[in-house]
Specification:
- By secondary structure, the chain is α+β, with helices and mostly antiparallel strands.
- The protein folds into two domains: about 70 residues, Ribosomal Protein S8, Chain: A, domain 1 (2-Layer Sandwich), CATH 3.30.1370; about 160 residues, no CATH class.
- The protein is built from four helices and twelve strands.
- Strands 6, 7, 8, 9 and 10 form a five-stranded antiparallel sheet that branches.
- Strand 2 and strand 3 form a beta hairpin.
- The longest helix is centred in the N-terminal third of the chain and has 19 residues.
- It is elongated.
- It starts with a helix and ends with a strand.
Length: about 260
């Protein structure tokens, strides 16, 4: 009798164990609705970035998916029709050419001197700058060495070079030995805020090769400066100076977006 009871008890618990065992997970592939396949060409943006942005618009249903081909610049979508339509609309809105504005950058190189100069007069638009310089520097007279307007784009830069007569800086050297100057502003970016944008660069390089009388001959010496620059749009900013004897060269930058 006891043996029969033990067998019945084991049978009962075995039955409960099998009854409580969860059913095997059914295949969760879509078997009712058909997926739609589309291949989208991305012309203006990195397809990986676009795909990363639109992937949440997919259903996430097993069997659906998004694949990227960077060589062909394509995004392949397999999903329900309404999800494919939503992804298509998003790609159209995202895949547009980035508008890079033109930048106008004006570079003026002024000469500061304690004595009167033979250089060209300073333009009227720079008169407020000269007035400020007369209160902060020890030079009473100012003239213009060069002024150039450059047009560039964010991500690019400007570069210029030229020659000037030593007499502009009060130098007396033999003829045929001019002053050489160069300046460059590389990788210009637009920074600041939407209300007060600026043009920024890690380095503005200004250099001059100046002839100097040495033991009856002429030798060239290098002068200049290198500095980071951040200029608010439509503001005139002194970004650097370099001195030569009793004179100085002052570089003034003005920038604006060409609309």
């Amino acid at each position: 009798m006891k043996r029969t009871l033990i067998i019945l008890t084991l049978f009962f618990f075995t039955f409960i164990a099998f009854a409580d065992e969860p059913k095997a997970k059914e295949d969760d592939y879509n078997t009712v609705r058909e997926f739609k396949n589309r291949v989208f060409e991305v012309r203006n943006r990195d397809p990986r970035t676009v795909a990363q942005t639109v992937k949440l618009l997919g259903s996430g249903f097993k069997g659906s998916g998004i694949q990227v081909n960077t060589d062909l610049h394509t995004i392949t979508v397999r999903d329900f029709p309404e999800n494919v339509a939503a992804i298509e609309d998003a790609i159209k809105r995202l895949d547009h050419a980035e508008v890079i504005p033109d930048l106008n950058i004006n570079i003026a190189v002024l000469i500061g001197s304690k004595t009167p100069l033979t250089a060209a007069a300073v333009p009227d638009e720079l008169a407020p700058v000269v007035k400020q310089l007369q209160t902060t520097l020890r030079y009473a007279n100012y003239g213009l060495l060069t002024a150039t307007m450059h047009r560039t784009k964010a991500g690019s830069g400007i570069e210029n070079s030229g020659v000037a007569e030593p007499a502009l800086l009060g130098m007396t050297v033999k003829e045929g030995n001019p002053i050489f100057y160069t300046y460059a502003m590389r990788n210009v970016t637009i920074g600041g805020s939407a209300e007060r944008p600026s043009i920024d660069t890690e380095s503005f390089d200004f250099s001059m090769r100046v002839p100097v009388n040495v033991n009856g001959g002429v030798q060239y010496q290098n002068v200049g400066f290198k500095t980071p620059v951040s200029v608010k749009m439509n503001e005139k900013v002194v970004i650097g100076t370099t001195t030569m004897g009793d004179k100085a060269l002052i570089v003034v930058v003005t920038a604006n977006v060409d609309k």
